[in-house]
């Protein structure tokens, strides 16, 4: 795949970029390795000052960055602007909290281990490689980079090939903010060259957000090198609506939960599992509100849904829906490629989905929702857990006992009650099963790339 900005609204190539040479990649790895020795010796207070400066740069550049994101991957401008501001918030969270999240811990009674003092401390490990996707071209990267740099690590970014301008902006962000040169570098390379970077002994760990096959490949390489990885590999999140739910509110939130970022979100609700008592009302409201979404130019402030980021992604989604319809599913709204320029797919709600259809098990990465009718909570959980994914989930119910029951029985990295899944700097983020390993954000995220060191004193 060429390293290029291809505008998904027009299908036109805006700008192409040459991949970095082997010599340049080596120089950047060496620079990150040297910067690690400098950065680890700095104080949390100094790193926090630089991190807050990076957050301010994002806010200063918000309009330019939002437009860049929209042109590169088609996200409606309102959402692109919100992404930039969320990144600034995330960086400030770690600037404010990294020192306390990584504070040493002491045993209250060290004599039990025969010591006068004993405990643990968190130490940075070195250069961490981040392999990141295009769908949140700033947030996916900075939710890793913020905690990694605040812990004293340095970072290398291999970004998706269709968002090179976002990648190059990030290449200079932290140095502009005051971090040592080399603390964070972008590598403009194709996926085929990631293995060589990960096997370099100066690179100590890796994180990947992306497809399950990409995650398995990266993890296999890291395992052979005995290097730590964090993987977030997407999902097919259930959105369960029970008979006691506020159906009107659930249907309204469901529209956003499925169609945020043009439906191209790992944590977007994708499978809507609805109790039979409220199924007809929910599906009617849901389909009506999806049909009312404005599809169009993502630079238009009034647009709700823009084009998919890539032509291949649009074609994949079209194939999934065609397979379902051929096997008996029916569209409550949408279900087709609109007759217009750009990589659009009409926002869609499909009923009658059955296990032999691709959409039953595969992740739909675009504005397509599937709805299921269930008789009770036991069936709801069977359907919800009936995929290989387990990233997040949402449950709508006003029964406190039922809330607790779903939390205990859903196989997912998160359960949201009466709301839609979102990521927050203050809460850990990650999945189970084929949705990945490890956690980002909160205390768990900053500790992933640290050496938990035991210290014993006689």
Automatic annotation (TrEMBL):
Q: Which domain of life is it from?
A: Bacteria
Keywords assigned by UniProt?
Answer: NADP, Oxidoreductase
Q: Which SUPFAM superfamilies match?
A: ALDH-like
* Pfam families on file: Aldedh (PF00171)
Q: Which residues form the Aldehyde dehydrogenase domain?
A: 3-455
What the record says about family reads: Belongs to the aldehyde dehydrogenase family.
**PANTHER family from the entry?**
SUCCINATE SEMIALDEHYDE DEHYDROGENASE [NAD(P)+] SAD
Q: What's the protein here called?
A: NADP-dependent succinic semialdehyde dehydrogenase
Organism the protein comes from: Microbacterium alkaliflavum
Task: Tell me the organism's taxonomic lineage.
Answer: Bacteria, Bacillati, Actinomycetota, Actinomycetes, Micrococcales
């Amino acid at each position: 795949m060429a390293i290029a900005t291809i505008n998904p609204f027009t299908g036109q190539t805006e700008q192409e970029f040459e991949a970095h040479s082997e010599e340049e990649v080596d120089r950047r790895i060496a620079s990150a390795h040297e910067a690690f020795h400098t950065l680890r010796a700095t104080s949390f207070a100094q790193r926090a000052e630089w991190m807050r400066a990076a957050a301010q740069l994002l806010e200063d550049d918000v309009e330019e960055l939002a437009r860049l994101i929209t042109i590169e991957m088609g996200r409606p401008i309102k959402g692109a602007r919100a992404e930039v501001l969320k990144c600034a918030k995330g960086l400030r969270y770690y600037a404010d909290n990294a020192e306390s999240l990584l504070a040493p811990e002491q045993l209250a009674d060290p004599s039990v281990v025969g010591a006068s003092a004993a405990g643990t401390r968190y130490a940075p490990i070195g250069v961490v490689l981040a392999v990141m996707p295009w769908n949140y071209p700033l947030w996916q990267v900075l939710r890793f980079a913020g905690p990694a740099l605040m812990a004293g690590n340095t970072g290398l970014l291999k970004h998706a090939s269709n968002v090179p301008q976002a990648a190059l902006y990030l290449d200079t962000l932290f140095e502009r903010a005051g971090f040592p040169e080399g603390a964070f570098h972008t590598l403009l390379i194709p996926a085929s060259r990631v293995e060589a970077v990960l096997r370099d002994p100066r690179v100590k760990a890796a994180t990947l957000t992306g497809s399950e096959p990409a995650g398995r490949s990266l993890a296999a390489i890291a395992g052979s090198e005995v290097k730590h990885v964090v993987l977030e590999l997407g999902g097919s999140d259930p959105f369960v609506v029970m008979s006691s739910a506020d159906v009107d509110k659930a249907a309204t939130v469901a529209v956003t939960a499925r169609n945020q970022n043009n439906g191209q979100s790992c944590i977007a609700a994708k499978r809507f599992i609805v109790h039979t008592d409220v199924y007809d009302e929910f599906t009617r409201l849901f389909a009506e509100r999806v049909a009312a979404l404005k599809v169009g130019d993502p630079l238009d402030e009034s647009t709700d849904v823009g084009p998919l980021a890539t032509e291949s992604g649009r074609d994949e989604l079209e194939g999934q829906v065609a397979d379902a319809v051929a096997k008996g599913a029916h569209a409550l709204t949408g279900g087709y490629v609109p007759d217009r320029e750009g990589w659009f797919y009409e926002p869609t709600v499909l009923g009658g989905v059955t296990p032999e259809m691709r959409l039953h098990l595969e992740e739909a990465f675009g504005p397509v929702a599937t709805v299921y009718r269930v008789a009770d909570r036991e069936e709801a959980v069977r359907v919800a857990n009936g995929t290989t994914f387990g990233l997040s989930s949402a449950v709508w119910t006003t029964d406190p006992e039922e809330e607790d029951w779903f939390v205990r029985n859903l196989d997912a990295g998160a359960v949201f009650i009466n709301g839609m899944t979102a990521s927050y700097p203050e809460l850990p983020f990650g999945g189970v099963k084929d949705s990945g390993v490890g956690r980002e954000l909160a205390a768990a995220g900053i500790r992933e790339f640290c050496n938990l060191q035991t210290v014993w004193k006689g």
